[in-house]
Amino acid sequence: MKHITIDNPIWKDRSVGLNVGGLDPKEEVTVDISYIEKGTGKRMFPGHFIMTVAEIHKFPTKNAAAGVKLHLVPITTLQDHIKLQVSGDPLKDLTVVDNYECARALDKFHRSLMVPLTERVNKGWDYLVENTGKNIPTKEKEKQQALYDTLKIQLGLLDDMYTATKALISRHEMVVTELSRIYVGLRENFLVDGKFPAELMTEQVNFMMEYYNSLEKMLKNIEL
To answer: What is the DSSP string of 38-50?
Structure first.
């Protein structure tokens, strides 16, 4: 499986350019978008996205540097391909990303409401600064100041909700990931024909203690 990390999406059409030249159409490709939002310090598009080369081939292409052909896959399409990914040791390398519908809705909320409102707040501030000291009627100045103050308050409220929701998504993903890791570990290291054995070996007891300590730490972190 090929792994591709995208540092910066193509913002013009909100897509990513994927180079899958020479790969078998049946092969799967894992895509991570590592772009970090400046305001929150967190990834804007969390999760691992898995698509087959054949699926990627369905999207239009553009030529990049050195003649490399990139397939332009919309980010919304990638977000429909969040899957359970297990490779190597199931106890150490298991990633489950849930919440993608909520994450997509939150991203749309950010694009549709917060970005335009941020632009209005910035323009309002620029207007106030540029017209400081100019001969503008007092009522007009007061009107523009009141409008700026109102928009700034609204933006602050939206930002609080946006930040809190992103944090909740991140926390839930952590819980789902850890529970899935423990489930796979129990299945791989304990179950025999779908049942737990009557007696546990020392190594299995050690695994069980590791699972217990992990759950204890997780529950402490989410303050249950």
So the answer is: TTTSSBSS-S-EE
**Secondary structure letter of residue 113 according to DSSP:** I
Asked if residue 2 lies in contact with residue 21, where contact means CB atoms within 8 angstroms, the answer is no
Number of domains in the chain: 2
Tell me the C-alpha distance between 153 and 164, whole Å. Answer: 17
Coil/strand/helix, residue 132: coil
Q: Which residues contact 107 (CB under 8 A, 6 or more apart)?
A: 44, 45
Specify if 24 maps to a domain: yes
Contact 44, 36 (CB under 8 A): yes
DSSP three-state, residue 5: strand
Joined together, the tokens standing for residue 93 give 């390398």
Name the DSSP class of 10: B
Exposed, middle or buried, 19 (CB in 10 Å: 0-12/13-18/19+)?
middle
Q: Residue 216 belongs to what H/E stretch?
A: helix 202-221
Domain that holds residue 118: 100-221
- 51-100, pLDDT tens digit by residue? 899 999 999 999 988 889 999 999 888 877 765 443 444 334 334 444 66
Distance, in Å, from the CA atom of 2 to the CA atom of 31, rounded to the nearest integer, reads 9
- Assess if residue 209 is contained within a domain: yes
Residues 109 and 73 in one domain: no
For the whole prediction, is pTM greater than 0.85? no
